[in-house]
Amino acid sequence: MSIKIFPHVLVRVAGAAFNRFEELNFHTTFAIAEELFSCRQELNTCKQTLSDCIYTVITTAEAEMQKKLLNAKRDVFNGRALTDEKITLLRQYLPAEPQAHLDTYLSLKDRIRALEAKGEALHHTEFL
Q1: Which of 74-78, 99-103, 115-119 has the least mean pLDDT?
Q2: Which residues lie below 8 Å from residue 119, measured CB to CB, with a gap of 6+?
């Protein structure tokens, strides 16, 4: 079982002076961590907006479709990955403006995954 440290940073300074820690070169990792934080904040905002949009569609849909849309809404709200089936369902039932929120949500999820992978790879070169 491997332990994922990125984007969390754990440092043991030991007996050295604390300003010695500032001399270490983690600039790129910190930049990625800051961008990751920014993307996650934007994702939370987008997630809330998209959930609200899906809820308005749920209230007007048929009973069977309501269940499927509610499951998709739960996945969005809880940050779980959307299956292709759920993405297709949302594209089918959401009006144009909420579909833009869906596209933003999906691109942010992809961006976060890419940043995590890049940061984890970079972590091994800068920290180890």
Answers
A1: 115-119
A2: 6, 7, 29, 32, 33, 36
Three-class HEC string of 8-43: CCCCCCCCCCHHHHHCCCCHHHHHHHHHHHHHHHHH
Closest CA to 117 of 36, 39, 44, 2: 36
Could you read off the pLDDT of 54-75 as tens digits, one per residue? 999 999 999 999 999 999 999 9
127, amino acid identity: F
* Residue length of the chain: 128
**What pTM was computed for the model?**
0.78
Nearest CA among 121, 10, 102, 107 for reference residue 51: 102
**In sequence order, what DSSP letters do the residues of 82-119 get, joined into one string?**
PPHHHHHHHHHHS-HHHHHHHHHHHHHHHHHHHHHHHH
